[in-house]
Amino acid sequence: MSSSRFVITVIGLDRVGIVAGISRVMAEHSANIADIRQTIMNDLFTMIMLAEVKGENVDLSAFQEAMSAIGKELGVQVIVQHEDVFRFMHRI
Amino acid sequence: MLIHPEEILETINMVTNEHLDIRTVTMGINLRGCSHPDIKIFNENIYTRIQRCAENLVKTTEDIQNLYGIPIINKRISVTPIAIVAESCHADDYCSVAETLDRAAQEAGIDFIGGFSALVQKGMTPGDLKLINSIPQALATTKKVCSSINVATTKAGINMDAVAMMGHIIKRTAELTGDRAGIGCAKLVVFANAPDDNPFMAGAFHGIGEPDCVINVGVSGPGVVNSAVRALQNPNLGDISECIKKTAFKITRMGEMVGKEVARRLNAQFGVLDLSLAPTPAVGDSVAAILEAMGLESCGTHGTTAALALLNDAVKKGGAMASSSVGGLSGAFIPVSEDQDMIRAVQRGSLSLDKLEAMTCVCSVGLDMIAVPGDTSPATISAIIADEMAIGMINKKTTAVRIIPAPGTKVGDMIEFGGLLGTAPVMPVHNFSSEVFIGRGGKIPAPIQALTN
């Protein structure tokens, strides 16, 4: 693993408060937003964030649980994955 | 952002909709230091050794699964062929060893443990003989133990005495697990040119020449390839090959990343990445569906072997580009019971045992998870094995037979194994006898292909 950066993907129907809700939970887990993109794909709201987490011992499962909980609240799907999976798969 | 959003969504779609997964993380454990004349001490030794090596295997793979968001379906262990490490034991059979392996697997929380195995392509030692004779009982009394016997190689030829014997062993294994549709046979593979580093069951064992402890990873993804091929607009076969190659590349990269990280965290060596399109009973996660996506009305019809050759080769090329540690079987699997569209092809009469045999000439394994009528004779089973071994021997490739003569069944019956093993339609075999041929015994000598030095 080369870094502690996570890609957070949010997919669902657009509504007020998605960005606010997601970024609040990220702040609670000391996750800094390094980049953010959003788009509508196949009629679905899609937001992709690159989050930086300082320190080696990130409690990933607690962070993932909190993110899916807020996702449920907002009616969207939230996926948290280490960025390396995309880097490895699509880049040489 | 260095990574394009479309690439991120493509990866997520592969996992959530197209069943992309790491099929197995298999830890290979050397048991050569466990030998002891007293089988009780030997069993204690292997139990302790497996515990020590694998105590964090499941926890670590689960951590990695969460980290990357890629499902890891099975955690498995392969060990040095038991016939080798148990040879010095003073015991009449090795059933207690299988029970010990089962207990160790249970304790480690893994799905299967492979290596109740013997390599007898040129002949049998007393230990090999004891192990083979222990198989029916061992597979009937254990849940997680898998057994494999290598009876042929390109270098040594085919040990037809062993082939003849395996026909009886398979029948006996089916009888002893007759109350569970002969499921013992689903855990038993007969090989030609068995690979030392295969992470897939039931044929995994930790070969001679392997390191002390190694992580081998099996990646799958027929669903992803199927979707990619179906998304092409009016492609020619070159376009299809190119598309499969690119998809295989991506899948392999992901597998290698996972394998290396698991190995690093467990202080084990990273062995190989085995990219094998292994179907599951899930809809669309099917090798037959890929062949049908190429334009065949039903898998098994004329053209199937050519389509499978294209698929298997493109998968290998994509894999070889993506990783320098591609090994194991790497190709396409055609296990009938585990592939919905293959089952359908058998039911509608387009896929026969003979066609499957032809298909094994161009894909990575052999006759896999095939149910035949319960009254199929041992000689017929041996003859089916012999044909498959000949294909492997002459073509310098791995072939295998995993066949289930489920007691009391007849052609057209469906046998339910459950889980990843799926549902097998009972297929007809030829009714003409092979008894005399198999009864002759001896060896089929190594072919001219063996003389490469």
Characterize the structure shown.
The complex is a heterodimer of chains A (92) and B (453). By secondary structure, chain A is α+β, with helices and mostly antiparallel strands. Chain A has one domain (7-90): ACT domain (Alpha-Beta Plaits). Chain A has three helices and four strands; from the N terminus they run βαββαβα. In chain A, strands 2-3-1-4 form a four-stranded antiparallel β-sheet, sandwiched between helices. Chain B is α/β, with parallel strands linked by helices and 453 residues long. Chain B is globular and about 65 Å long. The mean pLDDT of chain B is 94. The termini of chain B are far apart. In chain B, strands 1, 2, 3, 4, 5, 6, 7, 8, 9, 10, 11 and 14 form a twelve-stranded mixed β-sheet that branches. Chain B has a two-stranded antiparallel sheet with strand order 12-13. In chain B, β4 (145-153) and β5 form a beta hairpin. Chain B has 15 helices and 14 strands. Classes of the chains: A alpha+beta (92), B alpha/beta (453). At the A-B interface, β1, β2, β3, α2 and β4 of A face α1, α3 and α9 of B.
Task: Give a nutshell description of this structure.
The complex is a heterodimer of chains A (92) and B (453). Chain A is α+β, with helices and mostly antiparallel strands.
What order do the helices and strands come in, and which of them pair?
The complex is a heterodimer of chains A (92) and B (453).
Chain A: E1 5-12, H1 18-28, E2 31-41, E3 44-53, H2 60-74, E4 76-82, H3 84-90
Antiparallel strand pairs in A: 1-3, 1-4, 2-3
Chain B: H1 5-16, E1 22-29, H2 39-54, H3 57-68, E2 72-79, H4 82-85, H5 95-108, E3 112-119, H6 126-141, E4 145-153, E5 157-159, H7 160-176, E6 188-192, E7 213-219, H8 222-231, H9 237-266, E8 269-277, H10 287-293, H11 304-322, E9 331-332, H12 340-347, H13 353-359, E10 367-372, H14 378-394, E11 399-405, E12 414-416, E13 423-425, H15 435-439, E14 443-444
Parallel strand pairs in B: 1-2, 2-3, 3-4, 4-6, 7-8, 8-9, 10-11
Antiparallel strand pairs in B: 1-7, 4-5, 5-14, 6-11, 12-13
